[in-house]
Amino acid sequence: MTAGILLQIAQTLLAILLAPLLLGWVNQCRAWLQGRGAPPITQPYRSIRKLFHKDAVIAHNASPLFRFAPYMIFACMALAAGIVPMIVNDLPFSPAADAIALVGVFALARVFLALAAMDIGTSFGTLGARREMLVAFLAEPALLMVFFTASLISQSTELPHIVETLAHSEFAIYPSLAFAAVAFWMISVAENARIPVDNPTTHLELTMIHEAMILEYSARHLALIEWAVALKLFTYSALGIALFLPWGIAAAGDWGALPLAVLALFAKMAGGGFLLAFMEAISAKLRLFRVPEYLGTAFLLAVLGMLIHFLLEV
Amino acid sequence: MFEPVILPVQLAWGIVLFWLALGFSSLFTQQTPRLRGLIFPLGALAALCLAGVGVIGLIDPASAIVLPIGLPDLPFHLRLDALSAFFLVLLGGSAFGVTVYSIGYFKDMERGSLALLAFWYHLFLAGMTLVLLADDAYAFMVAWEVMALSSYFLVTTDHDIPDIRRAGFLYLLIAHVGAIALLLCFGVLQGGGLEASGDFTFASMRLAEMTPFWGSVVFLLALFGFGAKAGLVPLHVWLPEAHPAAPSPVSALMSGVMLKTAIYGLLRVTFDLLNVQQGWWGTLALTLGLLTALYGVIFAAVQSDMKRLLAWSSIENIGVIVAAFGLTLIFYTDGKGALAALTMTALLYHALNHAFFKGLLFIGTGSVLHATGSRHMGHLGGLMRFMPWTAWLTLIGALAIAGLPPLNGFVSEWLLLQAFLLTPGLNQPYLNMVIPVAAASVALAAALAAYVMVKFFGVVFLGQPRDAKLNHAHEASWPERLGMIWLAAGCVLLGLFPTQVIGWMAPVVQLLTGQTLINDGNWILLAPVDAARASYAPLIFFGVLLVTVLLVFIWVRRIYHGRVRRADAWDCGYPEQTSRMQDTAEGFGQPIRHIFEMFMRVEREEPDPFDRHPRHTSASLDKIWFIVYLPIARLAGWISDQAGRLQHGRIQWYLIYSFATLIFLLVL
């Protein structure tokens, strides 16, 4: 049990520490694909460090909620990173929160971010909050449907059980999971504010969603939010790996498999990050009111995946 | 075993009598301020006692008494079993918070109308309690009418406003259409069995052997009658009119508790009185429930009156509850007792949750209304700075209703979703296809609820005040705060201790479905059915979340400086910003209106290019009102017009009518 808790903490810390690296890697790949000179892979760390050293500037009418939200968002993401099996499959925390609770944790962070965005009362903040909730109300049920498909196969909504079942299944890929995988990819792109739903590098009012919400944040608060964003991307990637490429994650008590599990995680993350950068490079940003169609497609794909599970009964 | 001296049902009846006495005495004590001030505190105390009686009733076996009141040979039968007891806990728990709140809320009310209000208020509470206790159709209908009429008078408290009179009338009308259906329902239950039972008591109805046909008739009538009270689509139209019209504590009771009496009735008739159930009833209820949930939440998202928004959100929650009811029926008729127990638990849990968070949100809007004089979200904003207590307590309610962990809304939603995941065990293959879609709709409704709550809380409490007078908004008084704290504490505790709550509910679930939900975990771990399948431990979850927030906070504070500079908000280089440039409530709902426009009738008023004072307004109206209700109203108008032709006001004609009738009858 103690070993389990230590592993749990170690995995969560590892995720927190490595998260900006994944973001740096995606940015680097994207720069290469676009034929630009790439920033160093450690650039996100430097930005976060820089932000922590600055003086925080807060609007006169900011309420305590505004100052509390970044800590809450960061904690939620850390918690989410603790639920998803990344290198080990035996997490003592996972019985406390299953896949549905994971969706709840993401929602909790999002609601706090949206509320904080509305707190100052600038038109941008509210606009961002509104758009974020628009994306969320379609992405969240779609994500739940993806989890449902996986949990119908494994008869469990607990991520370790799902990973355990899928890693040792006789099928290379379940037909229902193939649909779910496509849906999951679309959802993660939307949830992590990437192209084509949102552009993390833009500050153009017509298009921005996530950036509009955090315009009023600065210094340590902004640093925490940026870090939480990186952590969210990392957690979503780990989630995708756990659901669709679960090979290599160390089983319970299998200490010898740990180094291999870390290596496998690195390799899969690098591949996934490159794929994300590639997809971003070849697609264009969608107009805001095409986003519901995009997410509606994801939602339908996830529901289709579930229906296929019922039809084929595998 | 010792014989208890006083039965729980007698205690509950005593509280009913106490409330009635309080109500009547409030009419005569308005001259003495000291006595007048005691009415609501005593009422609150009685509500707390009632919750206590409910808890005893959950543990004790059912108890019944016969009261020698009513018509000759038709006494009132009262009975308190686990189902009644559970709803008594719900009623008492929610009403205690709301009544404590009322002490402060109605303090400055004019004396005459306060006397009347206190009278109807306590009559309303007594009526709802009697509905839960009634054990024969006669007592039930009397209590049902007391509840409907007293709430009608509460809704029309401000009867000098025409809109409120209109809302009240609509409410009364639909309440009575529903009541007629209930009367017929009980009639069929009494006489529709293979051999007619002797009297109208529920006890003899339970024994009646129903054919599937008559059973279905009973169920449909009950669904209609109770659905009208609960606000099931398409019978929901009174709800968004009546709830905003009533004073806020009354809205809280109507939404939090009165709608639940309809759920109680539905459960009582379907699972207790009827001894035959059919699978298609479940499918019907599931479909209607999901429709109601989605319809309600979509309309909630486009409202700009905060109480109307909450009323629509109540429709959504009732939809979720009825969907759970449908799923329970499906499992139950399929012989899956354990799963029926799980869904029934989710249903009861959600009903209890809704009583707490919706009550909290409604009284929160009451404080805002008192402090600002406005219900329209377009005139509010930034209230968190002026009313921090109200704002933070309302935030708890908003997060709970949005279904976020670790609060109570999440628990019931989690249980319901788990139930949906267990449907592959069903024997009906076609149903299996439908269930994923149903699960998706529940998830969609829950996600939209989060949208609605961000809108509600963000526009009212965050941002800048949209009106200069808001800068003088005052915080709620202490009784008001205490009432809100009670309900908010309920939201938190129901969220953190689900295993205990489910343990208390077990007798109810046992009574209705014949099985209890097996918790495979321990006191801290909620694991319905099987721990390997799914588990949730809110206490651990909350603890870890709290510790993580604290650790992050301490770490940031220890390593880095905590310097903060205050400045103006960034104005994008445009200094002429006013608080009116914030997003409005309409603006926040605009994406939803854009996406779901097919469900609503949007009436826009575009400004003329030459207009000196251009205005743009748009209203999203309920399409069902235009499709269903207006034609019915027109038809009724047409029929009465035709009937009106007979009326000439001339005595000769009326004599001819009577003569013709006489001849006709003689011929017959």
Describe the protein.
- The complex is a heterodimer of chains A (314) and B (668).
- With 314 residues, chain A is mainly alpha-helical.
- Chain A has one domain (2-312).
- Helix content of chain A is 70%, strand content 1%.
- Chain A contains eleven helices and one strand; from the N terminus they run ααβααααααααα.
- Chain A has helices at residues 2-33, 43-53, 64-83, 99-119, 123-154, 159-167, 175-191, 210-213, 219-244, 258-282, 291-312; one strand at 56-59.
- The two termini of chain A are 34 Å apart.
- The model of chain A has no long low-confidence stretch (mean pLDDT 88).
- Chain B is mainly alpha-helical and 668 residues long.
- Chain B contains 24 helices and five strands.
- In chain B, a hairpin with a 2-residue loop joins strand 1 and strand 2.
- The longest helix of chain B is centred in the middle third of the chain and has 36 residues, at 337-372.
- Chain B is globular and about 100 Å long.
- Strand 1 of chain A pairs parallel with strand 3 of chain B, so a sheet runs across the interface.
pLDDT averaged over residues of chain A: 88
Q: Radius of gyration of chain B from the CA trace?
A: 26 Å
Could you say how many structural domains of chain A there are in total? 1
Question: How do the helices and strands follow one another from N- to C-terminus of chain A?
Answer: HHEHHHHHHHHH
- What structural class is derived from the secondary structure elements of chain A? mainly alpha
Instruction: Give the largest chain-chain interface (CB within 8 Å).
Output: A-B, 76 and 84 residues
Helix content of chain A: 55-70%
Radius of gyration of chain A, whole Å: 19 Å
Oligomer: heterodimer
Span between termini of chain B = 67 Å
Count of strand segments of chain B: 5
Show unreliable segments of chain B. none
The poorly predicted ranges of chain A are none
| SSE series of chain B | HHHEEHHHHHHHHHHHHHHHHHHEHEEHH
| Largest sheet features of chain B | 2 strands, antiparallel
Q: How is the main sheet of chain A built? A: none
Question: What's the helix count of chain A?
Answer: 11
Strand order in space, largest sheet of chain B: 1-2
User: How many alpha or pi helices of chain B?
Assistant: 24
Question: Structural class of the secondary structure composition of chain B?
Answer: mainly alpha
Structure summary, number of beta strands of chain A: 1
